[in-house]
Structures are given as C-alpha cells and as structure tokens.
Amino acid sequence: MTCSNLPRMGTLNQGGQLVRATKRTPCPICGGAKWCSTSEDGGLVLCMRQPAPDGRRARNGAHLHVLTPLPWLRPGGRRNSVVIRPDPDLTRMHECCRRYASEDNRRFDSYAEALGVSVESLVAHECGLDSGNLTFPHRRRRGGRPIGLRIRGEDGGKYFWRGSKPGLLFPSDAARPESESVWITEGESDALAGWDVGLDCVGRPSADAGARDLRHVFEEGRRIVIVGDRDAPGIVGAKALLELARLYDPLAKIVLPADECKDLREHLLAGKSPEQMEVFCD
Q1: Cα distance between residue 103 and residue 125, in whole Å
Q2: What residue spans of the chain are helical by DSSP H?
C-alpha cells in the first residue's frame, strides 16, 4: 500500500498507510508532533528521535519500533526485510537534524569539546544531530542544497546517510570569514577548527575526494592553500589536487602541520598558528 501521506518514502507491505504524528495524535514513542509516523493498525512506529530497543532502523533512517507482533514483518535478517524504500529528501532530513541539535544543546556542546572546536563553528557549518550522532551537510557548491549527510558517531566512526553523495563542507554564507585565501582541508573537523581561527576553509571528506566540486571554489579567483595531513595518503592527495589548483592560481601551495601533529586540527590544538605550518616542497 502506498504511503501517500508520507511523500518520497516508499511503500508499506501490509498494515495500512503511515499516519503522520500531529499535536492531536503525537508519536507514541517520543511524544513528538512532527516527523514521526505510525501505521494505521498501530503496530509499527517510525520514530525520528528515539532509538528502538533492538536497534532496528528503516531505510529512511527512522527508528523502527514494533509495538505488536506483525506477521508480515520478518524478524531479524537483512535490513531490507523492513518495509521502507526511501528516495531520501536530504534537505528535509538536514533541517530535521539541525532542529534536533537546537533541542539538545548538551550533546552539541559535548561534540564541540571532543573535537576541540567551538559550538559556533558547528552552527556556522550547519551541523546537526541524528540519534545523538553529529551530522555534516555536504554540498556541491557554496549555498547549494545538501547532496549528502555525513554522520560522525560518538566513537569517531564516520559514514554517509543512505542515498547520500560525498561533496564538500562549507560554512554558511552569513558565517563565511573574509579572507584573501581559501583553505582546502582533509576532513570536516579540520574545516571546523580552521574557521575558529578565522580561516575560510572548505572541507573535503578524504584526501582523494572533491576535486570536481572544488573547481567551483577555485573559480572564485582567490589564493589557494591546500592543507595536507602529515601521512602518505594525505600528501599524495594534496599533490594531486595541487596540479588542478595551479590551473586557477599559479601560486597555489600545500602546507603541512607541525611534525608532531597529524592534521590542521591537531596543529591548532597544540597552540600553533596557521602561519607556523610547513610549506611542502616536493
């Protein structure tokens, strides 16, 4: 049966249509009046806030709570035995995650402390929370719609929300620092740390990612600084990107953190300034 009242979310095998939570009929799990849904027979709840006891999740990322035995829902097995087939609306999910972050300041503060960055930097980059995990919106270009949500768990593990595509992490236009240079970092946390010291950073998810999307950044006509991690993959990736960057800025350069530091974030947490980074010469 088609979930006509839940756009872009797919179909329900049995159990009726999904009914959206409202103020009059809140979610039976979290009590929320938005985002969650319940099957018409009341046996299945898709809660966007409270994890299920068995950890089961639907394909749209919702927590799947089974309140009554459902013969058409196979226990265990692969996740695709669950009934949802999403065409994810990442813009909507991103706004949902940002809303959760505004409602859970303590968790947001704990992530900022763990990463060694400010809460203001998390807000400037429009980070959010999903079930207590930190989310980073990835975009093709500045001000564009999210094409991916990257999740960072409390244990430091990272993964992309299903249906996401890797892009770049930008600060919002309103929070963008004024700078003659743009700094390209490896990893979102380095971009957050750079923003805290006044750098206009663009974060790519890994050392060998983001070159196609970075062309839009290079076309801005500013000086280009590529920040490499102090390891073999980081240096190889930075050198490959430098070849592209010098098509737009002949003076583009690679900088590396101090010897005892792995990346830009560790460099700054050690009390060193961006000017103390080493210019890489091959």
Answers
A1: 17
A2: 90-103, 105-115, 119-124, 188-196, 211-218, 232-245, 264-269
Question: 82-106: per-residue pLDDT in tens?
Answer: 444 444 688 888 998 999 888 888 8
Residue identified by tokens 């190889």 is 236
Do 210 and 204 form a contact (C-beta atoms < 8 A)? Answer: yes
Q: Tell me the backbone φ, ψ of residue 83, rounded to 5 degrees.
A: -90, -10
Element (DSSP H or E) covering residue 224: strand 223-227
Angle between helices 232-245 and 211-218 (to 10 degrees): 50
pLDDT greater than 60 at residue 15: no
Up-side HSE of residue 252: CA atoms within 13 Å toward CB? 24
CB 84 within 8 A of CB 63: no
- The answer to whether the beta carbons of residues 73 and 83 sit under 8 Å apart is yes
Q: Tokens 């968790």: give the residue.
A: 107
Indicate the residue type of 148.
Answer: G
Residue that is written with structure tokens 């980070």 in the block: 127
Q: Which residue ranges make up each domain of the chain?
A: 1-87, 90-279
Residue 157 in this model has a pLDDT that exceeds 60: yes
Specify the pTM: 0.69
Q: What's the pLDDT at 211?
A: 93
Class of domain 90-279: alpha beta
